[in-house]
Amino acid sequence: MALLLCRGIRMYPPLLNYAAFLRRKSHVFYCAMSTTEAQTATQGSQSTPIKISPHRKEKGLDDVLKDYEAIIGIETHVQLSTLTKAFCSCPYHYGSQPNTNICPVCMGLPGALPVLNSKVIECAVKLGLALNCKLNIKSKFDRKQYFYPDLPKGYQISQFDVPVAYGGHIDLDLPVEFGGGHRRFGITRVHMEEDAGKLLHSGNGRVPLLEIVSEPDMRNGIEAAEYAAELQRLVRYLGVGNGNMQEGSLRCDVNISVRPIGQVKFGTKVEIKNLNSFSSVNRAIDFEIVRQALLLSEGQDDQIVQETRLWEEGSQKTVTMRKKEGLSDYRYFPEPDLPGVILTKDYVDSICNCLPELPEVKRRRYEKMGLSMQDILFLANDVNVAEFFDATIAKGADVKLAANWIMGDIAAYMKNEKLSIDDIKLTPQELAELIASIKGGTISGKIGKEILFELMAKGGTVKGMIEEKDLVQIADPAEIEKMVDKVLLDNPKQLEQYRGGKTKLQGYFAGQVMKASKGKANPGLLNKILLEKLNAKS
């Protein structure tokens, strides 16, 4: 089967090294783009060979793309953090051995009746409300018929014409390095369904799943990747799933078509699967836009067919997987073994009242605090980091200083130690105390850093550590003056050089005083006294 599939793949020579055309920075979440040389196209394809213009090399990529625009929509599948599967009581554990967590309902055996997991409805309503959707008070399930090895019963329980939620939108902010700005992307629908099994790992399928279908509002890989990242944030903020793409807990199927600028009619839609990172989403879309634009520019639009393509990470290209099924191929009909889902007003209101502060609301609140967009995007990206920051400023810490400490030394420590902010021993209370101690002059910034790293590794309190190690900053002018006089007396040659014009030696003298004070001398007071002494007439 695999051999036949590979023989059916036909590659377009100018695109084998397409990344050479796309020399631009990648996304803040992304790796730098790169590509490997692909092998030449295999022979034996039944499709019509693509004719290459002799002037292809003379046409720059920008010249091709300036005449076309991409229309991009995304179908996002979110696995829910439930204890059991969607329609039976079998447990769901990622990484379980194949064919262990199964039952007659999972297999669709005769006489086995599915029962809807109520937690799935709760998650669907939460996500629908968070995406500003309208809710269908009465929705139903349908059977989606198709044969695939990971779908042993031959159909999938899904929602077709009456989804649980529809007509919403999601707001996000693009990173400053990509022009910044606010974006709003439409949400077509949110529907409940069961996930298929896995052919290579964790097997057993039927995991509770929500599918989010966007409007075709995106125009490039950056916007699409940011949209997917925002959905991941939303899922984690709500607690409905972990959103881990590497586990398949959040998967994106991208639909792309390209059309001449000014044309109202959409081009032929191509779906791309196998996207397991935001970087893959970005690079796969950019590749596919180039592929379709080049074909259109050559007048070979008949070579763009409605199909499903896979993104190959190694060769950095999309390849044909199968011709795309149409709605009629799925033969939808109402699921006879499940009743409809009816939502009451009290049920919806109870969920609405329990929703947490969502990423977009949090970003706008941080913006009103005066934080930069770079700070805002970092802090709001992780719900746990955001909660740590909020708890710190709630203890009275300066907003900007708290953000700087979290984004700087704390983030660096977590990265080096491969820890999350919940894993470190530092508490928001002690970070606020540390900031206050430095700001109030009790300890220096240098001593503050030393205390910070010990607090993150071992825990404890700022006050206790200052007293235990005698770290209180020296702020007595007379004591600092004595240390300055001694340093100048011990370094007559450097003093002569300073007064001869080498004023950069001020840093040398300051370092010697700090060394003598074991880092406890007040830096501001030290520099003031030192300058007076250095510039005094001998």
From TrEMBL:
It catalyses: L-glutamyl-tRNA(Gln) + L-glutamine + ATP + H2O = L-glutaminyl-tRNA(Gln) + L-glutamate + ADP + phosphate + H(+); L-aspartyl-tRNA(Asn) + L-glutamine + ATP + H2O = L-asparaginyl-tRNA(Asn) + L-glutamate + ADP + phosphate + 2 H(+). Its EC number is 6.3.5.-. SUPFAM superfamilies: GatB/YqeY motif, Glutamine synthetase/guanido kinase. Keywords: ATP-binding, Chloroplast, Ligase, Mitochondrion, Nucleotide-binding, Plastid, Protein biosynthesis. Residues 387-534 form the Asn/Gln amidotransferase domain. It is found in: Mitochondrion; Plastid, Chloroplast. One of its GO terms (cellular component) is mitochondrion. It holds the Pfam family GatB_Yqey. Heterotrimer of A, B and C subunits. Belongs to the GatB/GatE family. GatB subfamily. NCBIfam families: gatB, PRK05477.1-2, PRK05477.1-4. Allows the formation of correctly charged Asn-tRNA(Asn) or Gln-tRNA(Gln) through the transamidation of misacylated Asp-tRNA(Asn) or Glu-tRNA(Gln) in organisms which lack either or both of asparaginyl-tRNA or glutaminyl-tRNA synthetases. The reaction takes place in the presence of glutamine and ATP through an activated phospho-Asp-tRNA(Asn) or phospho-Glu-tRNA(Gln). Allows the formation of correctly charged Gln-tRNA(Gln) through the transamidation of misacylated Glu-tRNA(Gln) in chloroplasts and mitochondria. The reaction takes place in the presence of glutamine and ATP through an activated gamma-phospho-Glu-tRNA(Gln). This is Glutamyl-tRNA(Gln) amidotransferase subunit B, chloroplastic/mitochondrial. It comes from Eucalyptus grandis. The gene is GATB.
